[in-house]
Amino acid sequence: MTAHPPRRAARLLAALLPSELRDDALDDLQAMHEARATSFGEPRANRWYWTQVCAFPIRVWFAQWIGGPLAPQVVVPDRRQRREPMNAILSDARFAVRSMVRTPGFLAIALLTLALGIGANAAIFSVVRTVLLRPLPFPEPERLVTVFETRTGRNMEASLTHGNFWDLNELNRSFHAVGAISWGSMNLTGSAEPERLSVANVTVGFFRALAPTPTAGRVFTDGEDQPGGDARVAVLSNRYWRDRFGGDPALVGRAITLDGQSYRVVGILPHGTPWLDAAQVFTPLVRRPNPNRESWELTVVARLRPGVTDVGARTDLASLATRLGEQYPEVAGLGFGMNTTEDWLANEDQRRALWMLMGAVGFLLLIACVNLANMLLARSTGRARERAMRAALGATRARVVQVALTESLVLGLAGAVVGLALAFAIVRFLRSLNPGDIPRLGDTQIDGWVLLVTLGTGLFTSLATGLVPALRAPYHDLVSALRDGDRSMTGSRRSGGVRSTLVAVEVALSLILLVGAGLLVRSFGRIIGENRGFDSSNRIFATVGFPDSRDSVQEARNAQVMLQFLDRVRGMPQVTSAAAIHLRPLIGSGTGMGFGASDRPEATGNEIPWAGWRVVSNDYFKSMGVPLIAGRDFTEHDRLGAPPYRVIISERIAKLLWPGENAIGRPIQLWKGQTSTPGEVIGVVGDMRDWGLTDAPSYSVYLPTYGYTMSPANYVVHSTVPTATLVPMLRSALAELDPTLPLSDVQTFEARVGDSVASQRFTMVLLASLAGVALALALAGIYGVLSYTVSQRRSEVGVRVALGASHRSVVRMIMRQGMLPVAIGLVAGVLGSMALSRYIASLLYEVTPFDWLTYLAVAGMLLATGVLACWLPARAALRVDVLSALRDE
Amino acid sequence: VTHRALGEFEHHVLLALVRLGKRADVAAVALELESVTGKAASPAAVFIALRRLEQRGLARSQKREARPGEGGRGRRAFQITAAGTERLRESRRTLERLWGVLGPSAEPR
Fold first, then answer.
1. Hey, which of A261, A427, A510, A650 would disulfide with A774, CB 3.0 to 4.6 Å?
2. How would you classify residue B36: left for phi > 0, otherwise alpha for psi between -120 and 50, otherwise beta?
3. How far, in Å, CA of A536 to CA of A388, rounded?
4. Shortest distance, CA B75 to any CA of chain A (angstroms)
5. At a CB cut-off of 8 Å and minimum separation 6, what does A615 contact?
6. CA geometry: angle at A87 spanning A82 and A93, to 5°?
7. Which residues contact A367 (CB under 8 A, 6 or more apart)?
């Protein structure tokens, strides 16, 4: 029984081989495979065959390219003549490849340098392109806007209230469609495990404005958002449809059970960011009979009518707002504002960070170019004789330059190919580093545009690096070049100047990158080291979603189960303390209210201060590690029934409203300017940074959960056991209470904190990596130039030593020569960093862009690098054998 | 026909053709080289070298029918030409002349 090579390998091999050699090569390899299978066994033979699949065609193609066709030529009509037109360039290219292959060390370092520069550029550009440059996934996105509410005298951009939204929807004259969206969640039951779904409620106008083309079925139609219409319909996001239902097209028309109610699936959305993948399920937002005008709840998007200008729409909105303000006293001072879609994807900080990274990779590419130019320059000096010979034999200057340029062109293209391979790896790494809050980052891929730009970068690099040595090719001074040949000392002084300049440029660019990275690292250290006001160790969050409370019976039951579950958790011996809260901290958003002291005269003209509010159970502060400064914690007698509400406030509010006085028992106005509900302060707790670590500690108002139903409820549990042990215990405790309730979004508090700074960490890690590569390139560059110079000056050193120069003085001489461009580069780099500092300033937290410590550390690091890079060749110079150096002379 | 010097590997391949006698294919040459030098020979290198030798007139080839029980369509078999033999002889003479002047004591250490 004969062994056969793996079928797929053989097919791949056949596809990769040139057709005229295919049969021969396949047969030979099959025979060798068979021999190997007999002596070493089939698996090893198969592995060997796979390596041949890669190696064999490459070697064959390469051999053909360098040395002409391998197959016997059946007909030989004068081959030379046939090739004439393309001849010059192709033969130059072939010559370039041959001469580079002969110096593999040079080739490897040059390719690596290029690939790093080009690869980093391609990778970051593909991110920038995916996140920032690709258009929104909607038709005519330039006509899309978001609409927000304002009030005279208050600096805010609020969501719309239900009442104002429906009036805007009906009365505007500028929009083709206006739609609203609000977020929630529901329980999906009817299959094995109950599941908590993110749900978006949208009006019919929402999809009409965005105008996505459904993947299957339809989106909502007229009447489905009106009272009495059929609102039990659902549209699924593409991602959820694929993940949960395997992309089954027959799902359209079927029913799913959400919060115990049956919904008919009418359509599947296309994949897309923003909006379309932001929720798992979309259901109609039904118009309420008596919509309020006090609660800002709806995010509103709109599509301008064709031909309506931005100014026209703003005028229309203003007159509409004035009319509504006159009609309804509760919205006096109402205004509407419009935003472009710029913020729909990345926010301003993220955009800035990405563009800064794009600039940083640009610098890295420049450094790589400088390095390569240096290498080519050294190489061309070494080959002065070859060029002089060409000129002497009658080549025109243009021809000599062309040969030199072809060489760097070939190098640039090869670098682009290797760089592209590297870019694939970097993009994969970036996707794994995805902080999660940069939209579309996960979709990053290398597309045609990126390929084109990479190719362009390769060409640019070739021209930039090839031109210097190409133009320096000796042409006029033929005689001396021919005579001096390889150990030319005449040309080296002039090109030495060019090389030193290049080193200075390289040092300056590296310093700029390193300063940027250093500043971000320091800033990140500040963020992490900041006093947060809470303790995140050994604590986890988990969510229990309750079905929507449709009636008071359901609502009472939800409230009861919520507290029962809390009691069970607290009863576990491993749990130190536990509490419920309606919104987790550090989620980058939250609920807010205006507030003021009711026992103080109203300060007119001032802006109403704004606080975040959260509904919490007792023990919340203990579970979060926040100190109770005065007063007491909630008990179940503090009910959220009739006002005044008993509230606990953060220390900053107490200091703002009643500076230097006892705040306990004071009356406070809640939702000031909206409902102006009265409240009474029963406790004061420590401040925490619960909006984000980079935000100042927030003004916070805490309301008791008793008499209020959280849906869903979040729990914070402080325990002595690891998460993996705790979570199953929580799950079984919940299942005992109600097996249809899902426990979801389990996350440790530490992870929550980590996620909240993931964006900053992403930028920092990237810039630091780029700066690290830049430092390595600079080290290699300085070392390369200096060791070349030293080798050129061997005989000079030999003479000096022979004439009695001390070792120290020789080292000093070489070091001085090497360090001068480094020093110049450092100064230029510091100036450059200062000039560019404003681009990074907004990304820094409590670190000025002129942070002298960073500058000092970075300059010191580069200086040390420079000393090392100079010292190694200087030491080598001392090992010069005096006699042999003199004999060369 | 160019009179470029034989590369070391080409030299080895030509010698392997002589050792194998008539009609050797890539697999046979590679195995022969492996067994004599103790180093794995790359099939691509042998494949390419044989064709270059053929182009220089030092070897010739012929497509051979597959034997019963053997997979594939039959392999291309190579054979050294008279010119190839002459070239080997010439290089051997050169080497021996160079070695001959030196005694065994001059063996490089």
1. A510
2. alpha
3. 72
4. 6
5. A581, A582, A640, A702, A703, A704, A705, A708, A710
6. 140
7. A117, A506, A509, A510, A774, A777, A778, A781
- Residue A525 tokens read as 């250290």
For chain B, the first-to-last Cα distance in angstroms comes to: 38
Contact yes or no for B26 and A32 at CB 8 A: yes
d(CA A569, CA A732): 11
From B31, B48, B61, residue closest to A60, measured CB to CB: B48
State the Cα–Cα distance between residues A671 and A651, nearest whole angstrom.
19
Q: What Å distances lie between residue A191 and A187, A188, A248, A256, A591, CA to CA? A: 11, 8, 16, 10, 34
Rg from Cα positions in chain B? 16
How, if at all, do strands A628-631 and A677-685 pair?
A: antiparallel
Angle at A593 between CA A591 and CA A598, to 5 degrees: 150
What residues pair up with A300 in beta bridges, in sequence order? A147, A180
pLDDT reading at A357 higher than 60: yes
Instruction: Give the Cα separation of A477 and A489 in Å (integer).
Output: 13
Residue with tokens 């900080």: A349
CA–CA distance from A658 to each of A81, A602, A678 (Å)?
97, 13, 17
Q: Which of B4, B20, B67, B75 to mutate to test the interface with A (most CBs of A within 10 A)?
A: B75
Angle at A654 between CA A651 and CA A657, to 5 degrees: 145
Q: How far apart are the first and last CA of chain A?
A: 71
Query: Would you state the structure tokens that stand for residue B32, as one six-digit string?
Result: 């022969």
Where are any strands of DSSP class E within A152-223?
154-158, 175-189, 195-202, 216-217
* A534 contacts A690 by C-beta, under 8 angstroms: yes
Task: Report the candidate in A214, A131, A705 with the shortest Cα–Cα distance to residue A427.
Answer: A131
According to DSSP, the β-strands at A233-236 and B76-80 are: unpaired
CA-CA distances (angstroms) from residue A286 to A161, A291, A301, A554? 14, 11, 17, 21
CB within 8 Å of chain B, chain A residues 37-76: 52, 55-56, 59-60, 63, 67, 70-72
Pairing of strands A667-670, A591-597: antiparallel
Q: Are A616 and A583 in contact (CB under 8 A)?
A: no
- Provide the token pair at A332: 């006096």
d(CA B87, CA B80): 11
Residues in CB range of A725: below 8 A, 6 or more apart = A574
CA distances from A400 to A61, A385, A405 (A): 28, 12, 9
Q: For an interface test with A, which of B20, B34, B51, B56 has the most A Cβ atoms less than 10 Å from its Cβ?
A: B51
- For residues A245 and A784, what is the distance between their CA atoms, to the nearest angstrom? 60
Does pTM surpass 0.90?
A: no
Beta bridge partners of B24: B78
Residue B44 touches chain A, beta carbons under 8 Å: yes
For A69-127, the pLDDT digits (tens) are: 887 655 444 444 444 445 677 777 888 888 788 778 788 888 888 899 999 999 999 98
Which residues of chain B fall below pLDDT 50? 1-2
Half-sphere exposure of B105 (CA within 13 A, CB side): 0
Report residue A327 as tokens: 């009609």
Sign of CA dihedral A98, A104, A105, A111: positive
Determine how β-strand B59-63 pairs with β-strand A610-616: unpaired
What are A144's two structure tokens? 């899309």
How confident is the model over A669-710, as pLDDT tens digits? 888 877 788 999 999 999 988 888 877 777 899 999 887 877
> Rounded CA gap, A251 and A568, in Å?
39
Q: Which of residues 46-85 of B touch A (CB under 8 A)?
A: 47-48, 51-52, 54-55, 61, 69-76
Query: ipTM of the assembly?
Result: 0.83
Q: Is there a cis peptide before residue A270, judged by omega within 30 degrees of 0?
A: no
